[in-house]
Amino acid sequence: SLVLLLLLTGRTREARVALLGLIVCFYSGYVLYVLFPAAPPRLYLASLGAFSKTLKGGAMGITAFQNALIAMVPNEASRAAFPSLHAAVSLLTLTYAWRYLRWYVLPLGIVVTGLITSTVYLRHHYVVDLLAGALLVPWVLFAAPRFERWTLPANGTRVQRQVVCERSQEFPRLNETLVRSEERRVGKECR
């Protein structure tokens, strides 16, 4: 929703940064799923008979819908609990909202709090999975800008320089680092 809001308000540069960050977050999580396979509590603790009550959900059939979605995933996502991408993507989106759309932080924060709490309550994650997901956020904030610089053309395009220069005037503190790195890379001052 944040990327869409940024696009609708004409802030394509910020939308690109946030979208790339989310993509890097998802792929980093997928790599960690392979390196650290962990069964979620809904499967592991259930196999031990730890639950005396089945979560049935509301009258609208939400649980049946959720179970149908989980059944579509190979092995019912039996090794995709660590780290929690629910937590990582939500907190990363909240971080980008803080940077680019501050008015959106409060409504998004309410949704993020509910989502993170419900992943433990609904037995999809252990608390340590959520902490590991939260630790993905600094990694993504470090890696995504470097990945973006790596994918841009070596000589820098005129459009890219123009966007950077325009944004530096609109948001001087926010883009100061980006402008400096672009000036070093291209060898041209924007101001």
Radius of gyration: 20 Å
Strand content: under 5%
- Work out the helix count: 9
Shape: globular
The helix content is 55-70%
Low-confidence segments? none
Question: What does the largest sheet look like?
Answer: none
Oligomeric state of the chains present here: single chain
Would you tell me the overall average pLDDT? 76
Structural class of the secondary structure composition?
A: mainly alpha
Number of strands: 0
Order of helices and strands: HHHHHHHHH
**Separation, N- and C-terminal Cα atoms:** 33 Å
Kindly describe this structure.
This protein is mainly α and 191 residues long. The protein is 69% helix and 0% strand. It is built from nine helices and no strands. The protein has helices at 2-8, 12-35, 41-47, 62-72, 85-100, 105-121, 127-151, 158-170, 176-186. Helix 2 crosses helix 7 (127-151). It starts with a helix and ends in a 5-residue tail after the last helix. The model has no long low-confidence stretch (mean pLDDT 76).
Question: Which descriptors apply to this entry?
Answer:
globular, single chain, 191 residues, mainly alpha
Task: Give a quick precis of the structure.
The chain is mostly helical and 191 residues long. It has helices spanning 2-8, 12-35, 41-47, 62-72, 85-100, 105-121, 127-151, 158-170, 176-186.
Secondary structure layout:
Layout: H1 2-8, H2 12-35, H3 41-47, H4 62-72, H5 85-100, H6 105-121, H7 127-151, H8 158-170, H9 176-186
